[in-house]
Specification:
Layout: H1 2-15, E1 25-26, H2 37-53, H3 60-79, E2 86-89, H4 92-101, E3 110-114, H5 119-132, E4 135-139, H6 148-153, E5 160-166, H7 178-187, E6 191-196, H8 207-210, E7 214-218, E8 230-234, E9 252-254, E10 258-260, H9 274-291, H10 293-312, E11 317-319, E12 329-334, H11 339-348, E13 351-352, E14 354-356, E15 364-368, H12 375-389
Parallel strand pairs: 1-13, 3-4, 3-5, 5-6, 6-7
Antiparallel strand pairs: 2-8, 7-8, 9-10, 11-12, 12-15, 14-15
């Protein structure tokens, strides 16, 4: 009991720093996570400094550059990479575009992906088809809980250049065996580009151990940063293969010739809003120092499994997420109800979730079970879903 009390006390203190989770049963981190107070305060202080002192005074550019590199170093330490391998982005999708568009393509080259990918990856692949005649081959991996490696291997041909896919599927919640997929890629001399929007902060990530070439992370989801923040890992072994796609002041070094900046900074696109980066830095430090990623990952796994078990016992509810390959995303359907109707009904009952309705992905309602959720909230959400399953939707 003493251990449980200590855990509850710690959780209460951490939840107090996430005001949004105190106003609703917050189960939509897969869209946007809650902002911690320290991130808000950092953004507010940075905005106030710009208001009071001006946005460009002596030392501003140097300070911004040092701040940005500090965020890259912080993220590198958290996710098992070198500081020179991390670029700042405005979203996971931006990172995917930078990685995919930076490669040199020939007409007829192929990318292998899966049938359950987010538009943030599929749309860049469509652009590659339009611009360069690149062919996308789809591996049907079902819910992601079966032999994903075999399904991918079956799609590889002599023209395949890249395997591009998610670490955690947005539409089924499955955690894919990324290390095994990277091994498959190496055996076939392919690159691996990863949509990490749902993985960074939700599951353990050691980039060097995973062996991937590019890993595009979202800042506003499980990492609790503001919108328009993200991170892109490019293995230093691939700097020569992936070229910058965007040229801006400060991204190149000039000494008679223009050369790409050292390391992954060369992949950064556009300018960064100082208050947003200040908030991102504060959120990452808070997750590392006060929350602890190992503790967060363990709690997400435990709560997610508990929620999955509860849903599996409810008549009229079918769980999409494979129980043996999951973390905190749990996708499900309620017989007779459209996913958007389920989400709306649960919001009326005090629970915020979302729904996935993007073809050809699996259509479902989705709950994001995070470390800040309480056991009581998890049980309450499952109970509310059971109540919905007992009702008949009212439709015109």
């Amino acid at each position: 009991m003493a251990i449980e009390t200590a855990t509850e006390t710690r959780l209460d203190a951490l939840r107090a720093q996430l005001p949004a989770v105190l106003t609703t049963g917050y189960f939509n981190t897969g869209s946007n996570g809650p902002i911690p107070s320290v991130a808000y305060e950092a953004a507010d202080a940075a905005t106030r400094h710009e208001l009071d002192r001006g946005r460009i005074i002596p030392g501003t550019n140097e300070g911004n550059r040092d701040r940005n590199r500090g965020v890259a170093a912080l993220a590198a330490g958290m996710f098992g990479a070198g500081a020179d391998e991390i670029a700042l982005t405005h979203s996971a999708c931006e990172g995917l575009n930078a990685a995919m568009m930076g490669l040199t393509w020939d007409r007829g080259d192929e990318v292998v992906t899966t049938t359950e990918e987010h538009p943030g990856l599929l749309l860049p692949l469509g652009l590659l088809a339009h611009r360069h005649g690149v062919v996308t081959r789809f591996a049907n991996i079902g819910d992601g809980g079966s032999d994903v490696v075999a399904a991918l291997a079956a799609q590889i041909t002599s023209r395949t250049r890249v395997i591009a896919l998610s670490h955690v599927l947005w539409s089924t919640g499955a955690v894919l065996p990324l290390r095994d997929i990277a091994d498959l890629a190496r055996e076939n001399e392919l690159l691996v580009v990863v949509d990490a929007a749902q993985s960074a902060g939700q599951v353990p990530v050691d980039l060097h151990a995973l062996g991937v070439d590019a890993y595009a992370m979202a800042g506003q989801k499980w990492l609790c940063g503001p919108e328009a923040t993200g991170l892109l890992y490019i293995s230093r072994d691939r700097f020569a293969d992936i070229a910058p796609t965007y040229a801006r002041y400060g991204q190149f070094e000039s000494s008679g010739y223009f050369l790409p900046a050292a390391g992954a900074m060369r992949y950064e696109i556009g300018e960064f809003y100082s208050p947003a980066i200040a908030a991102q830095s504060a959120a990452l430090q808070w997750l590392r120092d006060e929350v602890g990623l190992d503790w967060a990952h363990d709690r997400i796994t435990t709560l997610g499994a508990d929620f999955h078990r509860r849903l599996a016992t409810i008549d009229g509810v079918s769980v999409v997420t494979p129980a043996h390959a999951m973390a905190g995303l749990v996708n499900f359907n309620v017989t007779g109800w459209r996913p958007q109707e389920v989400a709306a009904r649960l919001y009326e009952r005090g629970y915020t979730i979302r729904y996935v309705d993007y073809s050809p992905c699996t259509v479902s309602a989705r709950a994001s079970v995070a470390w800040w959720n309480t056991e009581e909230e998890v049980a309450g959400l499952a109970g509310a879903i059971a109540d919905v399953a007992d009702e008949t939707p009212a439709r015109a």
